[in-house]
Amino acid sequence: MPDDHRPDAVTPPPGLLVRELDLGDEAIAAMVQDVGRRAYAVEADLIGFDGIPALHESLAEMRAQPSRWLAAMTGDGRVVAFVAWQTLSGTSPQVTDIDRVCVDPAWFRRGLASRLLNHLLTEIVDSGDVRVSTGADNQPALTLYRRFGFDRGADYEPVPGLRMAGLVLRRR
């Protein structure tokens, strides 16, 4: 691994594009919600908790999030994976919270989450600390974040029955 703890760049499958999304476009927002629900259904099975908020939020609630969105899209414009994040204002050093990393289960194990995280961490948010949370028993996600140099902090339970792992990538 390079000194900055990022895995080598992952080559996406042929024909995939990485680009920022505008959830003001209803068709794009609906695709994002659909991919997210399928991905979170898999996570719910992994962690034994089906109350993940993103599984149940409305399209309007998702679109109201103050996040930016980056997606892997097929050549015909289909969203197959995405990452959503917020850079917190007024923090020094800069702190970015990754809100969601989702891959359509039909596209699992093709390096899409790695590709999106690499793009986010090198092209968009290239300095400051980055925080992310995932289900404490979601081993695929924990492995992904460890590969990028994230350190796991204490687990926490935001609602009864949902044990989360908080991770941080410290960059100065």
Helix/strand layout:
Elements: E1 17-21, H1 26-47, H2 53-56, H3 59-63, E2 68-73, E3 79-88, E4 95-103, H4 112-124, E5 129-135, H5 139-147, E6 151-159, E7 162-169
Keywords:
disordered N terminus, 7-stranded mixed β-sheet, alpha+beta, 172 residues
Query: How would you sum up the global shape?
Result: globular
Oligomer: single chain
Based on CA atoms alone, the radius of gyration comes out at 15 Å
Q: Helix segment count?
A: 5
Query: Average pLDDT, to the nearest integer?
Result: 89
| Beta-strand residue fraction | 25-35%
Tell me the strand order in the biggest sheet. Answer: 1-2-3-4-5-7-6
The strand count comes to 7
What about the largest sheet? 7 strands, mixed
Brief overview:
The chain is 31% helix and 31% strand.
Describe the model:
- With 172 residues, the protein is of the alpha+beta class.
- Helix content is 31%, strand content 31%.
- The protein has helices at 26-47, 53-56, 59-63, 112-124, 139-147; strands at 17-21, 68-73, 79-88, 95-103, 129-135, 151-159, 162-169.
- Helix 4 links the parallel strand 4 (95-103) and strand 5 (129-135).
